[in-house]
Design a protein that fits this description.
Elements lengths: L13 H11 L4 E4 L3 E4 L8 E8 L16 E7 L5 H11 L5 E6 L2 H14 L11 E6 L18 H14 L4 H13 L2 E6 L19 E4 L10 E4 L3 H16 L6 E8 L5 H17 L3 E8 L9 E8 L2 H8 L36 H12 L1 H11 L4 H9 L10 H16 L1 H20 L4 H16 L9 H12 L4 H15 L22 H16 L1
Helix pairs in contact: 2-3, 4-5, 6-7, 9-17, 10-11, 11-12, 12-13, 13-14, 14-15, 15-16, 15-17, 16-17
């Protein structure tokens, strides 16, 4: 594994430079020279809430400063706890006389420094009076609950506790009450994280741990700690099943209960991936009779650029729901759901694109089979010449067809064109769907109308996108084949002309489609769309 370059002026200045930018985008947060960040417009009365921890987990903690959440946060260096002097200064600064609650992650450095800070502020300091404090320890990570040492680490449930405590403080609860409701939320909160790669810590010349290709770290930590369990990557359904098996026992949840579910992006996975995890969690909890009454999916507690996610489950009652739903101005807090999750099946009505009646259609079966076997090849070609989705689009359009295809040429081509238009989408769906529509219509009207259908398909594709020969598109294969057929040439001659057209695309730049953005970088790579079209003519020459 190689170390990833990052946006920085230097590894040593990433913390200060990055924090400077975060604060510039957070107008209600101000830096204090004692080493903490606090609200520029402090609360006038009531209990204050302070948290903190190593940087590299943004938006936790600095991004969660605001009305309804944190009054101050103490950022440490990358993955390093803040020191006791920072925490004590922040605590004194935000105290209104009603006391301060500390939200502390269960890591040795955090626990010790917050404890020392509470001792420091527990006595007067010159003109500054003593500050009454309480703390909530967050220890939700089940990956370390059976190890010697401090036990479960404090991870994604930290932001949940910060939200609950901040809302309780804003409603006017006392110091003891804010701490009590925070502890109640933390007591049965359980989390676990999975990653497909390690993070890259600034200043290090290698990732924080090595992971074999195609494997995942099951139970990884938010500071780049490797997992004791490294296993081959599996489907998301199985991952969530295993996560819930570890998480649920400590929550005490059962049928008829309500839960808060948080899927947290550790830094470098897509929203679609976290969406898959959340959908699986909702489905599997629902099968147990557990309602996902509230939810949060997003980047809350990151581990720099780790390609992973964590799953957190917390039991809910009416009070916790009300505190969760309370507003906050913290810029790092998303517009969290305030209603139960409903898993939409995303059922989509599709026209009938089957072709499973009548006699086997040999040549079109050969064509579709070749495309089905070549998805990886087509993906790799498009990765070099476009945006990498062509193979996926071909699989979406033709992958579901059982072989052999059955029916007349017109019937099968009609089914194929419908499938391209409905299932593939994008440019590929429109172009191939249009071509097969015209070819199918010609063959339905006249079984000998292949040449006429190819010309009609070519004209429709040109009208649709404006491509011409030399633009590095499907036209480079279809046009020479159409010319041969119009002149009375054989299907074999048409296939040879199409193949020559494909070869020519390797020597040209693209003028149409996303490949046109790449300029000379696509020289030497044949157009995958033209290649597939040439396969159609080869199949027709061999078996029609």
């Amino acid at each position: 594994m190689t170390h990833r370059a990052r946006f920085e002026n230097s590894a040593g200045s990433l913390f200060t430079d990055g924090l400077r930018g975060v604060l510039a985008a957070h107008p209600d947060a101000a830096w204090h020279d004692a080493g903490f960040v606090a609200r520029r417009t402090p609360r006038a009365s009531g209990v204050a809430v302070v948290s903190g921890g190593g940087s590299g987990h943004e938006p936790m903690h600095v991004g969660l400063i605001g009305a309804g959440m944190l009054d101050a946060a103490c950022p440490g260096l990358i993955f390093t706890s803040p020191n006791a002097v920072q925490v004590a200064a922040a605590t004194r600064a935000v105290d209104t006389g009603a006391g301060v609650v500390h939200v502390v992650k269960n890591y040795t450095g955090d626990v010790m420094n917050f404890a020392v800070a509470r001792r420091l502020v527990g006595a007067p300091d010159g003109d500054a009076p003593a500050v009454a404090t309480e703390f909530v320890l967050v220890d939700d990570d089940v990956a370390t609950e059976d190890t010697s040492g401090p036990g479960r680490r404090g991870t994604a449930a930290t932001v949940i506790v910060e939200k609950i405590c901040g809302a309780a403080a804003d409603r006017g609860s006392s110091l003891a009450e804010v701490a009590a409701v925070g502890r109640r939320a933390a007591a049965r909160a359980r989390s676990m994280a999975v990653s497909f790669s390690a993070c890259n810590v600034p200043g290090s010349d290698a990732p924080s741990f090595d992971l074999p290709a195609g494997h995942m770290a099951f139970g990884v930590g938010i500071h780049g700690e490797r997992a004791r369990d490294e296993r081959p990557a599996t489907a998301a359904e199985e991952i969530v099943t295993d996560l819930l098996a570890r998480i649920l026992p400590g929550t005490g949840l059962g049928s008829g209960d309500r839960a808060l579910v948080v899927v947290n992006n550790l830094g470098a996975v897509t929203d679609l991936e976290t969406g898959v995890i959340f959908a699986e969690a909702v489905k599997q909890l629902g099968e147990r009779g557990i309602e996902v009454a509230r939810s949060l999916v997003g980047r809350l507690v990151t581990a720099l650029d780790m390609a992973g996610a964590s799953l957190t489950v917390v039991p809910l009652d009416d009070e916790l729901v009300a505190l969760w739903d309370a507003p906050t101005s913290a810029p790092g807090w998303p517009n969290a759901a305030t209603a139960p999750s409903y898993l939409d099946p995303l059922a989509q009505s599709r026209p009938d694109d089957s072709a499973d009646t009548g006699e086997p259609n040999v040549w079109l079966s050969d064509f579709v089979g070749r495309v089905q076997r070549s998805v990886d090849e087509l993906t790799e070609l498009d990765r070099k010449a476009g945006d990498g989705d062509f193979g996926t689009n071909m699989a979406a359009a033709l992958g579901h067809f059982p072989l052999p295809l059955r029916g007349t040429d017109g019937e099968v081509l009609d089914a194929m064109s419908t499938s391209y238009l409905v299932r593939a989408g994008g440019t590929s769906g429109a172009v191939f769907g249009t071509f097969f529509t015209e070819l199918g219509r010609a063959l339905q009207a006249d079984g000998a109308g292949f040449a006429r259908g190819v010309r009609a398909g070519l004209d429709a594709v040109v009208e649709l996108g404006g491509a011409r020969v030399g633009d590095k598109t499907v036209v480079d294969a279809i046009s020479p084949a159409a010319d041969v057929l119009d002149a009375g040439g054989s299907l074999a001659d048409a296939a040879a002309a199409a193949a020559q057209g494909v070869a020519a695309t390797a020597d040209s730049t693209a003028s149409r489609g996303r490949a046109s953005y790449l300029g000379d970088a696509v020289i030497g790579v044949p157009d995958p769309g033209a290649l597939v079209m040439s396969w159609l003519f080869e199949a027709a020459a061999a078996g029609r």
